[in-house]
Sequence to fold (231 residues):
Amino acid sequence: MDKAILEFHDVSPLFETELRKALSFAKKFTIERLSLLVVPDFWGLCKLTDCPEFVNLLSEIRQEIVLHGYNHLGRAKLWQFLFTDGEGEFAMSDRDDTIKRVKKGKEMFDLLGISSKYFVPPSWIKNSYLEDILRLFDFRIVSYRWTIKDLSNGKVIFSPSVTLSNREYVSYWSAVFVPYFFAVFCRFAECVRLAIHLSDFRDEKKIGIWELMVGKIKNKRRFITYGELFG
Fold:
């Protein structure tokens, strides 16, 4: 059976209410395995170290944790403007800044007893230094918009991310076209990723679109995690 990954993006104390809605969403579809993309200091507004109750919640959830940058802020190149607006954390980072951000995220995880070998850069945008630096910090898997890479052996799996935009002037068209792209991806991709941003759970229309897409593949694909994908 083909596979799917359900991943919740931008996990932070700032979105605790939305995270609980997301977990209820997964439960509704009896999805038992999912990935939480955690941002240690989302937008520089809320550090995990300042929110022990939220950290306890992550522990109680007992799902795969993925490091999702450090603060989810950064300038992007002009051609990347379609994909992000001020959140491409690694797009313009030099080597030293990339090391600093990965190190701070990893150190905060270690301090809180959170273990993860998986990394997804915000907006799925990398730079030329990122993969080597992730290896230095013992990360095994990195995920991009179209692929997932095993850093230990270089193996790459084609795995498109299906997501809905939260940018005001792109959001409408995203809701119109994404379900069609989703149907195409499901025809030939070994693993499809449903990348749901927690802010989507503030929008009933988006929740309806996600319910439609998850419902269509629930019995056709096996939901797994990044760790299970590579064994």
